[in-house]
């Protein structure tokens, strides 16, 4: 009975864990990273806390303001090509040079800001509820920019909205995906102003519609850590994070478009409009005295969810890579995976090597498990007698069975121990493979042997022919046939169902994870075969 409960708990736990892709996040202790920008003109001084209105920076002046409506300029770096519009400094395009939409060699580059998204004004500012890109005159200082990996450059957009002058100095770097902005709001009127500023991003879907393993979702980093909103029904109605946020982003497992203001008392909100994902981070109560100026620093990140690039961003943006409860297991597994890849140059082979290493670590537990199962097999006749003798007194039957286990020093749950221990490792690796952009379009066996049919050419996608999950299910069935059958009929039926349950669950899993579990089963079968031969020799 104890063994049956353990088996049931293991199966149900694994089903729940695997089916629930997005668990409660943990807040990693990521230190705050300061960023600096380089601009063509000196950045305005920030007022120190405690300065009076009379000491605030002076307002910008527009002695020779020349609006340039509709002008576009291109920023080209080794990592991306961005196209901006002079009207408000909006993004029209943002193509990632190192990522393509499909595995085809001639596939278009991933464009985080396509023509459809441009209609919702990516990187647009909203002042007091009014979009600054509508009915506002803008000019641009600077032209097209081309950078190498070590270069930086700035472009300045200036707009006039009533008595407010908006100056946006955007700085680009050839070594990362950050766009740093120095924003100044100048009050040229005779009366003090109180402004509410919304900093926005807008993107098309970053993953396929209905993809439950890789959803496009809104994310905020607030006082509780990372908050994820992936229900499209709720996003269509509009959602808001009631806690103060540090940044907001629209992201998938592999890409992120986010806004990271360097200020406090921010509120985040997001909504799906016309099939597009919009997100805003609001700052209320910006006090600007007559003839004064208010300065803000804002960073935008548009790029892959690669740890080395996210770490360059301020305010814990690296927390966007969320491994859930098993973060402490997933991170070292990712490092080991990359370690093996650096030697073999193939992530599929790296997964196999990682599996062998994990199996070697669990070898003593597995050995003990097989011994426990053999001992349980020897006790089956005695257990059957107890079940028959006390079939009308379940409590007495359990007491006698426990006494029998104690007499022969057998742990009825010993055979399940390796499975229980491996659940966190399995799910940690599951999350690691699911969120590793390095596995996106990473090939293992590109073509099915002796054919020209694409097979395991993308370890982040399912096996297109379901070959690996079916073989994985067959290895589980073979493994059970080699394992001593449990005496409890109910338990035996559960064990027979497990290969079917696992095969069904794994059909649409990323092929990299299926490869891990398949290799794990093969090694287990080899281990059991070796132990049986050793026993009979």
TrEMBL record:
Which function does this protein serve? Required for the insertion and/or proper folding and/or complex formation of integral membrane proteins into the membrane. Involved in integration of membrane proteins that insert both dependently and independently of the Sec translocase complex, as well as at least some lipoproteins. Aids folding of multispanning membrane proteins.
Source taxonomy = Bacteria, Pseudomonadati, Thermodesulfobacteriota, Desulfovibrionia, Desulfovibrionales
Q: Which organism does this sequence originate in?
A: Solidesulfovibrio fructosivorans JJ]
An example GO biological process term is: protein insertion into membrane
Assembly and partners? Interacts with the Sec translocase complex via SecD. Specifically interacts with transmembrane segments of nascent integral membrane proteins during membrane integration.
Please provide, in alphabetical order, the Gene Ontology terms of the cellular component aspect for this entry: plasma membrane
What's the domain of life for this entry? Bacteria
- Renumbered residue ranges of the record's region Disordered: 28-55
What residue stretches are annotated with the Membrane insertase YidC N-terminal domain?
73-336
Name the UniProt record assigns to this protein? Membrane protein insertase YidC
- TM region(s), chain numbering: 340-363, 496-519
Hey, what's the signal peptide range on this chain? none
- Membrane topology category: Multi-pass membrane protein
**CDD domains named in the record:** 5TM_YidC_Alb3, EcYidC-like_peri
Main localization of the protein described in the UniProt heading: membrane
Q: Which family does it belong to?
A: Belongs to the OXA1/ALB3/YidC family. Type 1 subfamily.
Single annotated GO MF: membrane insertase activity
Instruction: Tell me the keywords, alphabetical order.
Output: Cell membrane, Chaperone, Membrane, Protein transport, Transmembrane, Transmembrane helix, Transport
| A Pfam family recorded for this sequence | 60KD_IMP
Q: Where is the Membrane insertase YidC/Oxa/ALB C-terminal domain?
A: 347-531
Its subcellular locations are: Cell inner membrane; Cell membrane
Q: Where is the composition biased (Low complexity)?
A: 32-43
């Amino acid at each position: 009975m104890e063994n049956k409960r353990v088996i049931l708990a293991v199966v149900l736990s694994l089903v729940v864990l695997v089916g629930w892709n997005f668990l409660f996040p943990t807040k990693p202790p990521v230190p705050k990273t300061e960023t600096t920008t380089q601009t063509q003109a000196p950045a305005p001084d920030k007022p120190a806390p405690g300065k009076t209105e009379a000491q605030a920076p002076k307002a910008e002046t527009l002695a020779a303001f020349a609006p340039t409506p509709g002008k576009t300029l291109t920023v080209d770096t080794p990592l991306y090509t961005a196209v901006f519009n002079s009207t408000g400094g909006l993004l029209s395009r943002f193509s990632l040079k190192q990522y393509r939409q499909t595995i085809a060699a001639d596939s278009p580059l991933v464009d985080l800001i396509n023509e459809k998204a441009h209609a919702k004004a990516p990187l647009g500012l909203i002042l007091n509820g009014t979009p600054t890109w509508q009915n506002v005159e803008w000019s641009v200082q600077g032209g097209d920019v081309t950078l190498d990996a070590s270069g930086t450059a700035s472009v300045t957009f200036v707009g006039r909205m009533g008595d407010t002058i908006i100056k946006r100095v955007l700085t680009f770097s050839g070594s990362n995906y950050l766009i740093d902005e120095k924003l100044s709001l100048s009050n040229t009127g005779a009366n003090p102003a109180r402004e509410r500023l919304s900093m926005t991003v807008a993107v098309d879907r970053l993953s396929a519609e209905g993809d439950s393993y890789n959803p496009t979702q809104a994310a905020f980093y607030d006082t509780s850590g990372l908050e994820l909103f992936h229900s499209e029904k709720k996003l269509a109605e509009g959602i808001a994070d009631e806690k103060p946020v540090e940044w907001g982003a629209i992201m998938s497992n592999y890409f992120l478009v986010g806004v990271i203001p360097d200020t406090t008392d921010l509120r985040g909100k997001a909504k799906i409009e016309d099939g597009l994902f919009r997100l805003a981070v609001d700052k209320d109560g910006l006090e600007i005295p007559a003839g004064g100026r208010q300065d803000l620093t804002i960073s935008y990140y548009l790029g892959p969810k690669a740890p080395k690039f996210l770490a360059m961003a301020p305010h814990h943006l690296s927390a966007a890579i969320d491994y859930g409860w098993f973060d402490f297991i997933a991170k070292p597994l990712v490092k080991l995976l990359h370690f093996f890849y650096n030697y073999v140059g193939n992530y599929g082979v790296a997964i196999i090597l990682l599996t062998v290493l994990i199996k070697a670590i669990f070898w003593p537990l597995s050995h003990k498990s097989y011994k426990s199962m053999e001992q349980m097999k020897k006790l089956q006749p005695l257990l059957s007698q107890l079940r028959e003798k006390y079939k009308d007194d379940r409590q007495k039957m359990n007491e006698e069975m426990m006494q029998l286990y104690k007499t022969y020093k057998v742990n009825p749950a010993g055979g399940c121990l390796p499975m229980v221990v491996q659940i966190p490792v399995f799910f940690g690796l599951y999350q690691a493979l699911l969120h590793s952009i390095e596995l996106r379009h990473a090939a293992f066996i590109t073509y099915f042997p002796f054919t020209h049919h694409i097979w395991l050419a993308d370890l982040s996608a399912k096996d297109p022919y379901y070959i690996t999950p079916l073989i994985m299910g067959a290895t589980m069935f073979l493994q059970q046939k080699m394992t001593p059958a449990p005496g409890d009929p109910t338990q035996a039926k559960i064990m027979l169902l497990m290969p079917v349950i696992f095969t069904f669950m794994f059909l649409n899993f990323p092929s990299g994870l299926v490869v891990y579990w398949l290799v794990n089963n093969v090694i287990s079968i080899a281990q059991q075969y070796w132990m049986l031969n050793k026993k009979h020799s």
